[in-house]
Each structure stands twice: as C-alpha cells, then as structure tokens.
Specification:
2 copies of one chain form a homodimer. The first copy, chain A, is α/β, with parallel strands linked by helices and about 325 residues long. Chain A has 10 helices and 13 strands. At the A-B interface, strand 10 and helix 8 of A face strand 10 and helix 8 of B.
Chain lengths: ~325, ~325
Amino acid sequence: MKYLVGVDLGVTDIKVGVVDKYGRLIRKDSIPTLKERTFEAIISDTAALILNVLDSEDIEVKDVKYIGVGTPGIPNNKEGIIVRNYTLNFHNAPIRSEIQKHINLPVFIENDANCAALAESVAGAAEDYDHSVTIKLGTGIGGGIIVNNSIYSGFNFAGAELGHMVVSMSGEKCTCGRKGCWEAYASATALIKQIKEAAQENPESIINKLVDNDYSKINERTVFEAAKQKDEVSKVVIQKYLEYLSEGVANIINILQPDVIVIGGEISKEGDNLIKQLRDLVYEKVYSKEVSMPEIKTAQTGSASVMIGAAMLGLY
Amino acid sequence: MKYLVGVDLGVTDIKVGVVDKYGRLIRKDSIPTLKERTFEAIISDTAALILNVLDSEDIEVKDVKYIGVGTPGIPNNKEGIIVRNYTLNFHNAPIRSEIQKHINLPVFIENDANCAALAESVAGAAEDYDHSVTIKLGTGIGGGIIVNNSIYSGFNFAGAELGHMVVSMSGEKCTCGRKGCWEAYASATALIKQIKEAAQENPESIINKLVDNDYSKINERTVFEAAKQKDEVSKVVIQKYLEYLSEGVANIINILQPDVIVIGGEISKEGDNLIKQLRDLVYEKVYSKEVSMPEIKTAQTGSASVMIGAAMLGLY
C-alpha cells in the first residue's frame, strides 16, 4: 500500500501528515509558517518537513502516491496554483511546480475548508453519508460542500463561501464589503463581540468574573462556561447566537439538503449541549417538514482535518 | 430511436409532450387539471392524454422509452410517489403505479422546478455547461440545481428551495411561516406588491394610467412598461427589486458557483434589459472577484420547460 501526504499550509503553521488510504493519520509534524517570508522559502521548508516526516517513519518518496496541499484561498488544481490567498499573500502561486522542485511526486491543491469537509466525509462525522456540508465557525465561517463523496466547489473552484451568504440585507458590515453576511452574526469572531457587548452592558454577569474584567480574555466558549454557572446574561447571548447560527444552517438545508451538516471550530467542542439546541431551532425554520431533516453533528477530525482531507484529494 | 414522454402535471393544466433524446418537443397537448377531482381521475385523464398525443403522431407505446412526470411538491422517485404536494393536495400519491394501471411503461417522478432546471441544462440556456442553477420568479421562487448535468436535490429530494433562503432575518413574513425569505422580496408576487404600493403612494405615476387605476391589472411586467415611458417611480421600484433579486443571486453564487444562473418566469421576458442591470448588481456583491463570475441568462425553454425536463429524467 502506498502512503499519502497531506499538507495544511496555514497562516500560522505548516502541518504535514502521513496518512493511509482510509484517512488515518500515521505521523505528523509542524513548523511555523513565518508568513512574511518569500513564497519560495515557505515551500522549501514545507518540502523539507515532508521529507523529515517521511524519514521518521522510514518511508521513502517512492512509497508515497502523492502530496495534497490544503491552504486558504481559491485553488486551481488544473494549473496547480493558488489563484489568490489574501492571508498568505499568494497570488497565482505555483505551489505544485514549486514543491516538485524539491520532491518528484504528483501534487494536488485545494482550499483548506474544502479539505476539512473531505476529511469529515472520509474519516469523520460524515463518513457514512454521500452528501455533507461542513461549517467551520472561526474568524469567519468557512465551508465545504461534499456531493456524492467529492468536493463540490463550482466551475471556478470558488464555491462554498457559506459565511458570505447574506442573511440580513443592510445589516452588520462584513469584512468582504457586503452587509449582513452570515459570518458577521454567527462566526466565532461575531460571538466574541456579542459576549463582550453583553459583559459591558451587564457588569453583574459571571462573564466579567471569568475573565477578571479583561475582555481580551473572552473567547467563544466563555459564554458557555458562564451559562453552566447559571449566568442569565450568558443564556440570553447563547440563545441569540444560536438563532443567528440556525438561520444560516436552515438556509443551507433548504438549498442543499445534505445527509449531514457538520459543525467545526472551537465552539463545536460544546458538543451535544450545543447541537441539541441548534437542531431544535433549525427544525422550526426548515421548509420541508414532511421529510427527514439532515443530521447535525460536531466535527470529528479536529486540528488534523485539513491535513487528512488534503491527503485524500487524489482518491475522491 | 425511442421517443420520450414528458408530463407537466400542474395546478391549472396537465401538459403532455413527446420529446426526442435531444430534448426537442415533437408534439404536445394539454387539458385542464380540474384539481378538485380525485387523484385517480386526474391520473386516468393524464394517461388518456398521453395515449392521444402518441396516437396523433402515430407513435405506439412500444416505441416509447419511458414517461417522466414533473409536478409540484417533494418527489420520491425510488418509491414512485409524491410525498407531499400542497397545491394539488397529493399526499404519498402513487403516481407511478397509478399511471402504470393505464400504460405499461417505466415512470420517473420529479419536482417541476427541478424538471425546468434539467430542461435548461439539456436543451436551453445552460446546455453548454455542467453546473447550473435555474430560478423561476413566479408566485414564489422555484429553484433547480444541476451538478454535473444531473438534478441535485439532496438526500431527501427536497433541496433547491431557493426561495426559502432567508435574506432578511426578522423581515417580511413568508408563506412558509419564516420571516425574511428571499421569495417574500424577489418573487413575481413580491414585485407586484411593490408596484401596487408605489402606484398608491404616487398617483402621478404612469403605472396608474397603464392599468386605468385598476390595481388588479398590475402584473410583474407593468413596472418595466412604465419605466420605458420614462416613469421615474417605476425606475425606483425596479432598482429596489433588482437589489433584492441580486442579494439572493449573489448568495447562490457564493455558495454554488454554477457555470450559469438561468432566470425564468414572466419577468425574464424583459431579457437583456433586466439581465444587464442584474449582473452589475450581483457583481458588486459576489465574494470572489479574482475568478470569473457565473453567467446570468434568461430561460429558453419557456412554458414547455417542465415537459421537456420530465422527458429527460431517464437520461440524466
């Protein structure tokens, strides 16, 4: 059996994993991206890390089938480039040919959120299903759509920008320039803003105690922690946030009716506590109540998701 | 070559067409649905109409490959039933077996909006493309999603309810019970409401003259007619309506990035006049400006769309 290599080329870290054909991680390692460097320096270090990880498992390059790379931005796998990646400042970056200067293997390129969705489809919460949508609640809302077990990203590879679905015309300003995008209400960033505002307006809230009145310590799970301590303010914040989250999830269901919606990101660690409330709110909103509703689950592949999904790119 | 039969089982009329494998309509006929009748009576008349249409072209049943039926509601083609169709009051209606009591041929069943999308994909505005989304602006907003030249409707056949994507949380009440659905802003019904309100508020508007102050005569194209006569009130109504329409179209592009978005319904007869303005508004709103945007076109298969799409069900 040949091994597969998955690379998560991220803004902070470059992670490399050796994966088997079932999407199981055999070994991984990571280095800081140091994104201010040149593209060539970043890829050179990525290639060296790949060779190191292979070496530590006594795997030779000839025993590897291909390398898959997941990175933010719009990929063009046909050309082997990233068309545009703002966070890493790549513009028509020839990732395939640059890696192949160091390692002679086929190279596949894909958007990182799409890789995470593929990882969930192959070896995670969606593994028993053909159609899934994975939503990552982070700085923004990243999305990946799986149709018939493969990534669907449209004719130009730029689809699944689920966070940039407007749910409130003329609403909150989004980083993309539009108003009312879902991620301006339901990303982790949006939740943290909602928590801060509630804490400021309600000095008696347990949120303030939990962070010693230092709002820079607030993260997306603070409000759940406070709610467990019976903080009423936090319960209101969570309820409102889940309303926002459910509007977008219900929209995705009305449009795509995947077998399963997979929720990832730090918030998803709240598990059933979160999913049950979310499912009830979504059910109220879906259009077709005469048929079963897609399942809603938390992501299972965690911080390895992009690596695992990237490693699967040549198989699905 | 075997012939294909497509049936548009609608609320007002039952239309039957004989179609060739390229989606070209050879002959068609229609009868009123008289929807208050029993399901059995409706299907019995449908079967008689099929046999009549075949007979008038001297085609025998053995020269027909199958019958495809497009009808409102949620289909289950596996079971050969319509799970639920509110407008015709069908509930788990066994369309396949009921037709087969009269004609011994395979029968495929699909939602009518999905059929229209397939017709555009096979023989209409999307025929040169793999991925398309067809939007019909009518009483509501119907939608059909084509992925890799086939209908995509999710695991439960209930997807592509594009009109029930909320674009304005807590906004206009929708017939589905939710608030802020796209169809409450951008359907033909919504446009007619917007035109009436503008005409009432602006007695000097040409709209009032065009309909002799009889608002029941207003249809979705009245406002375009008035705008051609330089009516400033109408220009404002159109601009606002196209803003609403563009919000949903941009959302669909951000999510699905199909090769082409096909706009159907009476409004689409405005043609380039409409499409050009819409495209400019959509371009402002799409997330990924570094790659080409999907094309936006008007539907080409017109009132035959459901028949043609239904006739293609066994081929795609």
